[in-house]
Amino acid sequence: MRAALTRLAAPALLFLLLLAVPFLGIGGGFVLDLLTRAMILGIAAVSLSLLVGGAGLVSLGHAAMMGIGAYAVAALDAAGITEGMIVFPTALAAAALFALVTGAVSLRTSGVHFIMITLAFGQMAFFTASSFSSLGGDDGYTLYARTEILGSPLLQDRRSFYLVCLALLALVWGGCTAILGSRFGRVLRAARENERRVRAVGFSPVPYRLVAYVMAGAVGGLAGALLANASEFVSPASLSWTRSGELLFLVILGGLGRLHGAILGALAFVLLEEWLSHLFVYWRLVFGPLLVLAVLFLHDGIAGLPGSLRAWSRWRPTFSKRRSADA
Amino acid sequence: MPEPLLELRGLCKNYGALAVTDDVSLTVLPQEIHAIIGPNGAGKTTLIHQISGTLRPDRGSVLFAGRDVTALPVERRARLGLARSFQITSIVPGFSVLENVALAVQARSGSSFRFLRPAGSEAAINRDALAALEAVGLAGAAGRMANALSHGEKRQLELAIAIAMRPRLLLLDEPLAGAGPEETARLIGLLRDLRQRYGILLVEHDMQAVFSLADRISVLVYGRVAATGTAAEIRADPEVRRAYLGEDELA
Ligand SMILES: Nc1ncnc2c1ncn2[C@@H]1O[C@H](COP(=O)(O)OP(=O)(O)OP(=O)(O)O)[C@@H](O)[C@H]1O
Ligand SMILES: [Mg+2]
C-alpha cells in the first residue's frame, strides 16, 4: 500500500503542477501554448512508453498514428465537419485501424526487424499524406476552425484547451498505468522479459501485443487530433520518421520504467527545444549528446532521477564496504 | 493397462548428420513417473523440447491424452495440460517470485484480456500461487525479486511454476540439479506426492532419486532408447551397464 502511494507521488505532483500553471498566470499565453503542445506530445509519448517500456515493442512508426489522427481532423474539416463527437472518434478509429493492420504484419517479427517494419509502415503513411492533393499535399492544410465540442468552441479558448489536454493526459496516463498492472499488462510485461516462459505457461504473446499496439495507436491518433487543433495546421512533416524518432527519444529521456517519465520527457524536450533554439542555430546538435548522457548516467531517465541521486549519494568504493563488512 | 497420457511414436530429429532423437517410442501412464536417463548429450533435453512443442520432430508423432499434438505450438500444448520445467532456468527476472507463479495460475483462470483491475490484488490467484510456492518450500521468498534468488531457489521456482499450471503431465528436465542435500530430499518427497495427481516424465542425473522415484526408466544413448524397464530391470540390464551406468553407481 505504502509502496503504491510513493509510486503515485511523483505523477500526482506533476499533474498538480500542470494544473496550477494556468491559474498562476506565469508568462501569459505563450507558456500555456508551449505546455499544451508538450502535454499533447506527452499523450503520444505515454502510449509509446506503454509499447516500448511495457511490452518491449520498439516502434519507430508512432508518428504515423499521430499523423493519421491529425489528417482525420483535416479531412473532416475540408468536408465541413468540425464536431468533436465525430472528429475525435474518427481520428481514434482511423489510427486504431491503421495500427491493427500494420501491427498484424509487424508483430510477426521482433527486435530490429520490428523497428524496421514499423519505420517502413510509417514512411508509407508519410508518402500517402504527401500525395493528398486535396489536403495540400506536401504543403499541408490549414484548418478553417478548431474542433468544436457539442457545438461549443471549447478548444478555441487557450486556457480551456490547455485544461482539456491536461485532463486527457491524466486520463491516458491513468488508463495505461491500470493496463500495465492488470492481467493483460502482466502478460505483456512477462512476454517482454521472457517470451519462452510466457508460452510455456500457455499464453500466445502476439494477440496481447496486437491489442496493446492498437490501443497505443488509438491514443496516438488522439494526440494527433489535438496537435492539429493546437497548430490549426496539418502537414506530412508530422508523420515523418524523424518525429517518430523524437517520440522515442523523449520516452527514453524521460525513463522507460515509469509511464509518467514519458510526460517528463515530453516537457523536457519541448522546453529545451524552445530554450535552446533561442540560444543558437544548431541547437539540435545538443540533443544527441544529451541522450547519450541521459542513457549513460540516468539509467531510469528523468523519472528515475530521485532514485539515481540517492544511489549516487550512497556510493562508496566497493572495497571499503567489504572491509567494514568483514570487520 | 490404462490409456497412456503421453505416447511418442517413432520420434526422429537430426541436427545435420547427428541423429539427436532416433526413433524414440515411449509412453507415460497417468500417475506414473517415467524417468529418462542417459549420458550428457544423449538427447534428453532435445526430446523434452519435442514433447513440449519448442522443437518440431523431423518424423514421428506426439500423442497427448489420445490426441495428436505434433503440430500444436507450445502454448496450445500447455493449455491442454502439458507443463515443463526448463533445464536452464527460465523465469521472469523482473517479477517477484509470487508474480512468476501467479502468471501461471492466471493462464488457467479465465480470460487474461482484462485491462483495468489490478492483477496483483486478485486473491484467488495469489492464493493458488502461494500454495504452489509452499509445496516447493519457497513461500518465504514470495515477495523477493526472482532475479535475486540463488540458483537452487530458481530451480524450485521453476518447479512451482509448473505445478501452479495444474497440468496433467509434468515434463521435468533435471529438477534436482543444483539443489543441496536438504532441498533434494524435500523435492523427492514432493515429486512422490505429485505422482498421485500427474503423470511425470523425469529427466534426472541423480541416480538415487531416479531409482527411488521412477516406476519405469528409459535409457537414452545417442538418441536411441537403449532399454526400458523397472528400476530393477534397468539395474540388471548388461547393455545399460556398459553404455551408461558406472559399476560403482550400481553397488
Ligand atoms: N541447436 C542444436 N544444433 C546442433 N546440435 C545440437 C543443438 N542442440 C543440441 N545439439 C546437440 O544434440 C545433442 C543432444 O543434446 P541435448 O541437450 O538434448 O542432450 P542432453 O541429453 O539433454 O544432455 P545433458 O545431460 O548434458 O543435459 C548434443 O550432442 C548437442 O550438442
Ligand atoms: Mg539436457
UniProtKB/TrEMBL annotation, chain A:
Compartments where found: Cell membrane
Domain of life: Bacteria
Membrane-topology annotation of the record: Multi-pass membrane protein
Keyword Ligase carried by entry: no
Keywords of the record: Cell membrane, Membrane, Transmembrane, Transmembrane helix
Record field: transmembrane: 37-58, 87-107, 114-135, 161-185, 206-227, 247-272, 279-299
Location, primary (coarse class): membrane
Signal peptide per UniProt: none
Any matching Pfam family: BPD_transp_2
Protein's name according to its UniProt entry: Branched-chain amino acid transport system permease protein
Organism listed in the record: Azospirillum picis
UniProtKB/TrEMBL annotation, chain B:
PANTHER family recorded: ABC TRANSPORTER ATP-BINDING PROTEIN (PTHR45772:SF2), CONSERVED COMPONENT OF ABC TRANSPORTER FOR NATURAL AMINO ACIDS-RELATED (PTHR45772)
Source organism (scientific name): Azospirillum picis
Pfam families, A to Z: ABC_tran, BCA_ABC_TP_C
UniProt-recorded Gene Ontology molecular function terms: ATP binding
Domain ABC transporter positions: 6-247
Protein name, as recorded: Branched-chain amino acid transport system ATP-binding protein
The keyword Nucleotide-binding is assigned to this record: yes
InterPro entries listed in its UniProt record: AAA+_ATPase, ABC_AA/LPS_Transport, ABC_transporter-like_ATP-bd, BCA_ABC_TP_C, P-loop_NTPase
Protein's UniProt keywords contain RNA-binding: no
Keywords of the record: ATP-binding, Nucleotide-binding, Transport
